[in-house]
Amino acid sequence: MATAKIAPSMLSSDFANLASEAERMVRLGADWLHMDIMCRHFVPNLTIGAPVIQSLRKHTKAYLDCHLMVTNPSDYVEPFGKAGASGFTFHIEVARDNWQELIQSIRSKGMRPGVSLRPGTPVEDVFPLVEAENPVELVLVMTVEPGFGGQKFMPEMMDKVRTLRKKYPSLDIEVDGGLGPSTIDVAASAGANCIVAGSSIFGAADPGEVISVLRKSVVESQNKN
Ligand code: DX5
Ligand code: ZN
């Protein structure tokens, strides 16, 4: 079974204190740290690149779940591999012609390949990547338009999660955008097991409590099925 992974989105952390924020999240029960890499061409925002991952890696052993919202993911594979990224999730919308080579090179650099899709992209578009001989190991279903934290969860994306879970019982299915205590149950019961949450964790008075609420919902949904 795909186990529950709670991944605080470091986009909502204090970037000036990234190392201590990472340490705090791990101490509070985070399984993964979600790192949002954005270039201004794929999304209207700009965040961090490989040098920051490399610096952070010196301070933590945590799994760095990198979500590449960039137009040329293949340019980032080598630097991210060297920097110590753990997971490398690219967007299907910019990899329609080269996803096979991309998956291959991600794996050859010691990272775990994943694919993400924007809200407007049909879920069928990622089936070939999951079914390939050299497949992705994670599908990230965006539940907001990528670009910014703090947006409203799109429940209509749960059809994609249900479809994926039905087809691929042990796949890591990640949801990202607007997740928190008020939206987790619908995502968990649809079959998501990797939960990204930025503002709901970092904005909470007790972030550790939010992490445990998210985990509990995933575990309980899995136990029902
Ligand atoms: C949005 C990013 C998300 C974002 C989620 O493009 O991919 O990871 O940080 O933030 P919240 O949980 O606040 O919606
Ligand atoms: Zn993300």
Automatic annotation (TrEMBL):
<feature type="binding site">
    <location>
        <position position="67"/>
    </location>
    <ligand>
        <name>substrate</name>
    </ligand>
</feature>
<keyword id="KW-0464">Manganese</keyword>
<dbReference type="GO" id="GO:0046872">
    <property type="term" value="F:metal ion binding"/>
</dbReference>
<protein>
    <recommendedName>
        <fullName>Ribulose-phosphate 3-epimerase</fullName>
        <ecNumber>5.1.3.1</ecNumber>
    </recommendedName>
</protein>
<keyword id="KW-0862">Zinc</keyword>
<feature type="binding site">
    <location>
        <position position="9"/>
    </location>
    <ligand>
        <name>substrate</name>
    </ligand>
</feature>
<dbReference type="GO" id="GO:0006098">
    <property type="term" value="P:pentose-phosphate shunt"/>
</dbReference>
<feature type="binding site">
    <location>
        <begin position="198"/>
        <end position="199"/>
    </location>
    <ligand>
        <name>substrate</name>
    </ligand>
</feature>
<feature type="active site" description="Proton donor">
    <location>
        <position position="176"/>
    </location>
</feature>
<dbReference type="GO" id="GO:0004750">
    <property type="term" value="F:D-ribulose-phosphate 3-epimerase activity"/>
</dbReference>
<dbReference type="InterPro" id="IPR013785">
    <property type="entry name" value="Aldolase_TIM"/>
</dbReference>
<feature type="active site" description="Proton acceptor">
    <location>
        <position position="36"/>
    </location>
</feature>
<feature type="binding site">
    <location>
        <position position="34"/>
    </location>
    <ligand>
        <name>a divalent metal cation</name>
    </ligand>
</feature>
<dbReference type="InterPro" id="IPR011060">
    <property type="entry name" value="RibuloseP-bd_barrel"/>
</dbReference>
<feature type="binding site">
    <location>
        <position position="67"/>
    </location>
    <ligand>
        <name>a divalent metal cation</name>
    </ligand>
</feature>
<comment type="similarity">
    <text>Belongs to the ribulose-phosphate 3-epimerase family.</text>
</comment>
<keyword id="KW-0413">Isomerase</keyword>
<dbReference type="GO" id="GO:0005975">
    <property type="term" value="P:carbohydrate metabolic process"/>
</dbReference>
<feature type="binding site">
    <location>
        <begin position="147"/>
        <end position="150"/>
    </location>
    <ligand>
        <name>substrate</name>
    </ligand>
</feature>
<feature type="binding site">
    <location>
        <position position="176"/>
    </location>
    <ligand>
        <name>a divalent metal cation</name>
    </ligand>
</feature>
<keyword id="KW-0119">Carbohydrate metabolism</keyword>
<feature type="binding site">
    <location>
        <position position="178"/>
    </location>
    <ligand>
        <name>substrate</name>
    </ligand>
</feature>
<dbReference type="InterPro" id="IPR026019">
    <property type="entry name" value="Ribul_P_3_epim"/>
</dbReference>
<feature type="binding site">
    <location>
        <position position="36"/>
    </location>
    <ligand>
        <name>a divalent metal cation</name>
    </ligand>
</feature>
<keyword id="KW-0479">Metal-binding</keyword>
<keyword id="KW-0170">Cobalt</keyword>
<dbReference type="InterPro" id="IPR000056">
    <property type="entry name" value="Ribul_P_3_epim-like"/>
</dbReference>
<dbReference type="Pfam" id="PF00834">
    <property type="entry name" value="Ribul_P_3_epim"/>
</dbReference>
